[in-house]
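Section 4.2 – Deliverable D4.2 (structural model, holo form)

The reporting period included a commitment to supply a predicted holo structure for the target in complex with magnesium ion. Inputs used:
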Amino acid sequence: MIHYKSKAEIELMRESSLLVSKTLALVAALIKPGLTTLHINNLADEFIKDNKALASFKGYHGFPFACCISVNDAVVHGFPSTYELKDGDIISVDVGVFKNGFHGDSAYTFAIGEISPEIRQLLRVTKDSLYKGIEKAIHGNRVGDIANAIQQYTEKEHGYGVVRDLVGHGLGRHLHEEPQVPNFGKRGTGAKLKEGMVIAIEPMINLGTKDVYHDKDGWTIRTADGKPAAHYEHDICIQKGKADILSSFVETEAAEKANTALCSDY
Ligand code: MG
Ligand code: MG
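Output (structure tokens):
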């Protein structure tokens, strides 16, 4: 069942989504080689608590951390750990918060220091594909229109692997609501998009094969060929004409840029 949100509820959801965005901006400002992913998780967790919210993922089906932090070949659901980031790594940080009865959920893939042009392009194309999906996320369209836009751009135009096993989703009082929002599919198919629907669109795109496997920790999803993967996620509300993006990458991108400039000064 799809839960449609009132205008007042959408404003509460915006607050949750923007708190996730601020958490990701905090991460963007501090990531550097030598930092452990557990340290990033702990700082994000504290920040969420300081903002009178709960980390949505902690305890969700038993997930033990506030953030999913997925390094290199890890696509999503990575465990924060004592792994120390090194130059050339990429990390996908996925954060959810629960505030005022609603969840926000957003993700961003960061580069640590210098990364190869090949991986740089994977990040750029994956982020762009998110916005191509959002362009189709309007009243009257269908979920398949979003899915198809993402797949066309990443798979057909760039030859990347679109993960089939995991999808975006409706969002609200529950972290995962109807409908499912895949990153692959046919135009004109799937659930009809209507005003008041809030969905998380989240392309998970692999440099190589689309195939993935479950790590032995029971959570981490990794690429079958060991090549890197990227993941970007926005929460959006369906409207007529143009989607309302509830989360924001503005602060994250500014912090990322400042951090990169700082690192290259050394
Ligand atoms: Mg997420
Ligand atoms: Mg999500």
